[in-house]
Amino acid sequence: DAKTTQPNSMESNEEEPVHLPCNHSTISGTDYIHWYRQLPSQGPEYVIHGLTSNVNNRMASLAIAEDRKSSTLILHRATLRDAAVYYCIPYEGTSYGKLTFGQGTILTVHP
Amino acid sequence: GAVVSQHPSWVICKSGTSVKIECRSLDFQATTMFWYRQFPKQSLMLMATSNEGSKATYEQGVEKDKFLINHASLTLSTLTVTSAHPEDSSFYICSAQAMGTGLGNTIYFGEGSWLTVV
């Protein structure tokens, strides 16, 4: 499994953009980059995923470096409900859903 | 709404007893489900892969005789913690991938089940 490096914690103010970085320099060419978040006392929640191109959905945007060794999850306007642990996970699509979690980034959003 | 549901959300049991946690896929069938354990302030650790109609595959260091997994149908996997001890107290989470459905092959997680052994 590819190893990931994320900041232990980050802080943001409400309604400001948040850029959550992830380093995955050992990612294989076929691994997708998945992002999940976990709110307190809940199971993880899917946020977004991508392979090479930048991706957007209603929750966030994902910017993937050209060499795929890093990516950045972008929350365009943070809300208090975005306070969670964010996990960046390289995922090989034939793993049938098996994910290996790192430590993630604890995001604190200030009102 | 939730597409993977766990039950119970929390349970307290006495040391030495067994407790069963259910994981159901609500909108899709899952031949494979996964069980994770999470201790406070730590990340999720994969315990085992639950395979419908066959034996579960356990991660290194996870006792298969203590954590019994049954995946008898395409929508239900159960985790039974046998002879529970206080050190088994944890947050248990299941997941499944919605393959070949309109859900876009996304991996969904249950709400988690808090187990406290007293």
**String of helices and strands of chain B:** EEEEEEEEEEE
Low-confidence stretches of chain A: none
In oligomeric terms, what are we looking at? heterodimer
Q: Give the overall form of chain B.
A: globular
Give the overall pLDDT of chain B as a whole number: 92
Between the first and last Cα atoms of chain B, what is the distance in angstroms? 33 Å
- Poorly predicted parts of chain B: none
- Structural class category of chain A: mainly beta
Which outline of chain A best applies? globular
In short:
The complex is a heterodimer of chains A (111) and B (118). Chain A is an all-beta fold.
Please give a structural write-up.
The complex is a heterodimer of chains A (111) and B (118). Chain A is mainly beta and 111 residues long. Chain A has no helices and nine strands. In chain B, 35% of the residues are buried. In chain B, the strands form two sheets. In chain B, strands 2, 4, 5, 6, 9, 10 and 11 form a seven-stranded mixed beta sheet that branches. In chain B, strands 1-3-8-7 form a four-stranded antiparallel beta sheet, with no helix packed on it. Chain B has strands spanning 4-7, 10-13, 19-25, 32-38, 45-51, 57-58, 67-73, 76-81, 90-97, 107-109, 113-117. Chain B is 0% helix and 51% strand. Chain B has no helices and eleven strands.
Keywords:
heterodimer; A: 111 residues; mainly beta; five-stranded mixed β-sheet; four-stranded antiparallel β-sheet; globular; B: 118 residues; seven-stranded mixed β-sheet; 0% helix; 51% strand
Q: Layout of SSEs?
A:
The complex is a heterodimer of chains A (111) and B (118).
Chain A: E1 9-13, E2 18-23, E3 31-38, E4 45-50, E5 55-56, E6 61-64, E7 70-75, E8 84-92, E9 105-110
Parallel strand pairs in A: 1-9
Antiparallel strand pairs in A: 2-7, 3-4, 3-8, 5-6, 6-7, 8-9
Chain B: E1 4-7, E2 10-13, E3 19-25, E4 32-38, E5 45-51, E6 57-58, E7 67-73, E8 76-81, E9 90-97, E10 107-109, E11 113-117
Parallel strand pairs in B: 2-11
Antiparallel strand pairs in B: 1-3, 3-8, 4-5, 4-9, 5-6, 7-8, 9-10, 9-11
